[in-house]
Design brief:
The complex is a heterodimer.
Chain A lengths: L1 E6 L3 H14 L6 E6 L2 H9 L8 E5 L7 H11 L5 E5 L4 H9 L4 E4 L4 H16 L1
Parallel strand pairs in A: 1-2, 1-3, 3-4, 4-5
Helix pairs in contact in A: 2-3
Chain B lengths: L5 H7 L1 H57 L3 H12 L4 E8 L2 E6 L9 E7 L6 E9 L1 H51 L20 H97 L4 H29 L6 E5 H18 L9 E3 L5 E5 H25 L7 E8 L2 E8 L29 H11 L3 E7 L3 E9 L8
Parallel strand pairs in B: 6-8
Antiparallel strand pairs in B: 1-2, 1-4, 3-4, 5-7, 8-9, 9-11, 10-11
The chains are: A alpha/beta, B alpha+beta.
Chain lengths: 130, 509
C-alpha cells in the first residue's frame, strides 16, 4: 500500500492523478491517494497522528493563499521522511532550482508526463517500500 | 524780413501788432489826458486875464469917467471909452445916463454871461451919474482854444503814430525776428542735429534775455541729444542683448531638440526593450496559463483511449471539453489584446450593449452552473449611439460584470444574510458616455491598485479565470479612445466605470 498526498487547487487534477496513477500502478502496488485543494488543509492533515504513513507528496506551486514553496517550507519544519515532488506549469530554471534547494526530490512541469512520473515514483517510492 | 511789409506782418505778427496797439492806446491816452489838462490850465489863465479887465476898469477908469461925466466932457469920455474898447478881449461897451445911451461900441451878445455893469458914482455925494456896461469876448477865446486843442490832438496823434511805428519796427528787429527764428529752429529741429541755435544779430556787449533763452534752448537740446544718444545706445545694447539671447535660445533650442530626439530614440529603444521584456513575461504567462488546461486535455484524452467505463468516459470528456474551452478563451483574449480581431467600428446603442453583456454573462455562468445574482438594477440614460466595436465592447463589459458577480458570490459564501446588489448604469458626462458596473461584493484590496488590469492577475480559483478579463476590458476601452477606471472599498463594494468618447477619435488601437 502506497500512500500518496496530492495538493492542487484544481479539483480536476485530483481526478487526473487518481485515474492515471491507478493505471500506472495497476499491477505494481495498491494506492491510497489523499487529495487537498489547498496547502493549509494538507498541513493540518500532516499534523494529525492518526494518519497512515505517507510515501509521497505531490504539490502544485501556483496556488492561492499558500503557494507550493511556502507549503514546502512548512513541511520541511515537520522534518518528514517521505519524498516531495513539486509540479508546476511554470517551466522555469528558477523554480526548478528553488524546489531543489528547498529539498524537493523532483521538479516536474505540466503537462505532466505520467510515464516518466510513474518511472520516477517506482524508483523513489516503490523500490524503497519493498 | 524787412519790417516794412505791414500788411503781411500785421497778419502773422500778433505780438508786434499787440504791442503796436497797446503802445498807441496807452500813449494816446496819456497824451490826451496831459494835453487836456494843460489846455484846461491855459484856458483858465487866459479866461482870468479877460476877467481881469473888469477889475482894471473898476480901479483905473471909473473914477476919471465919473469926473468927465460930471463935467460932461464928452470928448474926453469918448477918448477914454475908445481906449477902454481897445483893451484886449473887450467886445462891447455901453455908457448910459438917465436912459440915454451916451456911447456904445462893439456888438452885444445876450447869451454871453460875461458882462459887468458898473455904476458911475460921484465921489462927493454918491450920486449915480450913469452906468457902464462892459462885455468881454470869451467866444474868441473859446474858438482859439478849440482850434488849438484840435491842432494839438492831430499833432500828438501823428507823433504817437510815428513813435509807435518806430517802436514796432524796433521791437520787430530786436525781438520778434529772433523769436520767429527760435520758433522755426525749434519747429525744424532734428534730435540728431548737432547745430546749435544762433541768432542772426550783432554780438551783444552784454547778454540779454534772448541770449539766455538761446543758451537755455541749446543746453536743453544738447541735454536732449545726450539723453537720446544714451537711449539709442541703451536701445542698441538691448537689441544686441536680444539678438544675443535669441542666438543663445536658438542654440539651446537646438540642443534641446537634439536632447529630445535622443530621448525619443532612447525611449523608442526602451519601449522596444520593454516590449521584448513584456513579450517574454507575457509569453511565459500565456504558456503557463495554457499548460494547465493542456495538462488535463492531454492526459485525460490519453486516459480516454483505453477507458472501459462509459461513466468514466463521460466524466473525462466533460473535463476535456471544459479545459479546451479554457484554452480557447485564453487564445481569444490574446487575440483581442494583440488587436488582431476582426471587429468593425459601427454606431452602437450603448444601453443595448450593457444589457447584452449582462445577458451573455448570465447565460455563460448558467452553462457552468455558476452563481447568478437574483436581480440586477438598471439606471440607463437616453439611448445613445456611439461609434464602437460592438463585440469587443460587449465582451469588455461582460468581463467586468462577470467579475462583479464573482465578487458577490464570494461575499455570499462568507457572509450570512448578505443581499447581493448589482447596478448597471449609463450616463453622459462631458464628452464621454460612462458605463458603470457597481456591486456590493467583496471589493478590491487597495494594495492591488492598477495591477488589477495586469494580465494573468486573478483572484479566482484555478480554472475559473486566467486573469485576462480586466486586461481585455482595459484594452478595449483604450481601443475606443476611452478609459477604464475603478473605485472600491475592500469588503464593501466596487465600481468600474468604462468611459467612451461620444465622438470616436482613434480608429486603430
Amino acid at each position: 500500500m502506497i500512500h500518496i498526498l496530492i495538493v492542487d487547487d484544481e479539483a480536476d487534477t485530483h481526478l487526473l492523478y487518481k485515474l492515471k496513477l491507478k493505471k500506472i500502478f495497476h499491477n505494481v502496488a495498491e494506492l491510497n491517494i489523499t487529495s487537498f485543494l489547498n496547502a493549509a488543509d494538507c498541513l493540518s492533515y500532516l499534523h494529525r497522528n492518526d494518519i497512515p504513513p505517507v510515501d509521497l507528496l505531490l504539490s502544485d506551486i501556483n496556488m492561492p493563499q499558500m503557494d507550493g514553496f511556502e507549503f514546502l517550507a512548512e513541511v520541511n519544519i515537520l522534518n518528514v521522511p517521505f519524498p516531495i515532488y513539486m509540479i508546476s506549469a511554470y517551466e522555469s530554471p528558477d523554480f526548478r532550482k528553488r524546489a531543489d534547494d528547498m529539498g524537493a526530490l523532483r521538479f516536474l512541469s505540466k503537462p505532466v508526463d505520467f510515464r516518466s512520473l510513474g518511472e520516477l515514483m517506482k524508483q523513489d517510492v516503490v523500490a524503497l517500500n519493498k | 524780413m524787412t519790417g516794412f511789409d505791414f500788411k503781411r506782418h500785421f497778419g502773422t505778427h500778433s505780438l508786434s501788432l499787440k504791442l503796436l496797439i497797446a503802445t498807441w492806446a496807452i500813449s494816446s491816452f496819456a497824451t490826451l489826458l496831459l494835453t487836456a489838462f494843460q489846455i484846461y490850465l491855459d484856458y483858465q489863465r487866459d479866461f482870468e486875464k479877460l476877467r481881469n479887465n473888469f477889475s482894471i476898469i473898476q480901479t483905473s477908469y471909473l473914477d476919471s469917467m465919473s469926473e468927465h461925466l460930471w463935467s460932461y466932457d464928452t470928448r474926453l469920455l469918448k477918448i477914454q471909452l475908445e481906449g477902454l474898447s481897445r483893451l484886449d478881449g473887450i467886445r462891447y461897451i455901453r455908457l448910459t445916463t438917465d436912459q440915454a445911451v451916451l456911447f456904445e461900441t462893439g456888438s452885444p451878445d445876450p447869451t454871453d454871461k460875461n458882462h459887468e455893469d458898473f455904476k458911475i458914482v460921484r465921489k462927493n455925494n454918491n450920486q449915480v451919474l450913469g452906468y457902464l456896461t462892459v462885455e468881454i469876448d470869451t467866444q474868441k477865446l473859446n474858438e482859439k482854444y478849440l482850434n488849438e486843442t484840435l491842432w494839438i490832438f492831430v499833432r500828438q496823434a501823428a507823433k504817437t503814430l510815428i513813435v509807435v511805428l518806430c517802436l514796432y519796427l524796433v521791437f520787430n528787429r530786436i525781438l520778434v525776428v529772433h523769436i520767429q527764428h527760435i520758433a522755426s529752429y525749434l519747429r525744424n529741429i532734428q534730435i540728431r542735429d548737432k547745430g546749435d541755435l544762433k541768432l542772426h544779430r550783432r554780438l551783444q556787449r552784454q547778454e540779454d534775455e534772448l541770449d539766455v533763452l538761446v543758451q537755455s534752448i541749446n543746453s536743453f537740446r544738447s541735454g536732449l541729444q545726450n539723453a537720446n544718444e544714451k537711449l539709442e545706445s541703451v536701445n542698441q545694447d538691448l537689441e544686441n542683448k536680444v539678438q544675443e539671447r535669441t542666438i543663445q535660445l536658438t542654440s539651446k533650442n537646438e540642443s534641446l531638440e537634439k536632447a529630445v530626439q535622443q530621448i525619443r530614440k532612447m525611449q523608442a529603444s526602451l519601449v522596444n526593450q520593454e516590449r521584448l521584456a513584456s513579450l517574454g513575461s507575457l509569453t511565459s504567462s500565456v504558456a503557463h496559463e495554457i499548460r494547465n488546461p493542456l495538462n488535463f486535455v492531454l492526459n485525460f484524452s490519453e486516459l480516454l483511449t483505453d477507458s472501459e467505463s462509459l461513466e468514466e468516459v463521460h466524466e473525462i470528456s466533460r473535463v476535456i471539453l471544459k479545459h479546451s474551452h479554457r484554452i480557447d478563451q485564453i487564445v481569444r483574449s490574446m487575440q483581442i489584446l494583440s488587436g488582431y480581431d476582426n471587429d468593425i467600428l459601427e454606431k452602437t446603442e450603448i444601453n443595448d450593449v450593457l444589457k447584452q453583456a449582462y445577458q451573455n454573462t448570465v447565460s455563460n455562468r448558467s452553462l457552468d452552473a455558476s452563481y447568478v445574482p437574483p436581480k440586477v438594477n438598471y439606471r440607463l440614460c437616453e439611448p445613445t449611439w456611439i461609434p464602437s466595436y460592438r463585440n469587443s465592447l460587449v465582451r469588455a463589459v461582460s468581463n467586468i460584470i462577470d467579475n462583479a458577480i464573482h465578487a458577490l458570490e464570494k461575499k455570499l459564501i462568507n457572509t450570512e444574510g448578505f443581499e447581493p446588489e448589482l447596478t448597471l448604469s449609463t450616463a453622459i458626462r462631458g464628452d464621454f458616455l460612462e458605463i458603470s458596473i457597481r456591486d456590493n461584493g467583496v471589493g478590491i484590496p487597495t494594495l492591488l491598485g492598477e495591477k488589477i488590469f495586469d494580465p494573468f492577475l486573478t483572484t479566482k480559483s484555478a480554472g475559473e479565470g486566467a486573469g485576462l478579463g480586466l486586461t481585455v476590458a482595459f484594452n478595449i476601452a483604450q481601443k475606443h479612445g476611452g478609459h477604464l477606471k475603478y473605485t472600491s472599498e475592500f469588503g464593501s463594494w466596487s465600481e468600474f466605470v468604462l468611459a467612451l468618447p461620444l465622438a470616436h477619435e482613434r480608429k486603430n488601437p
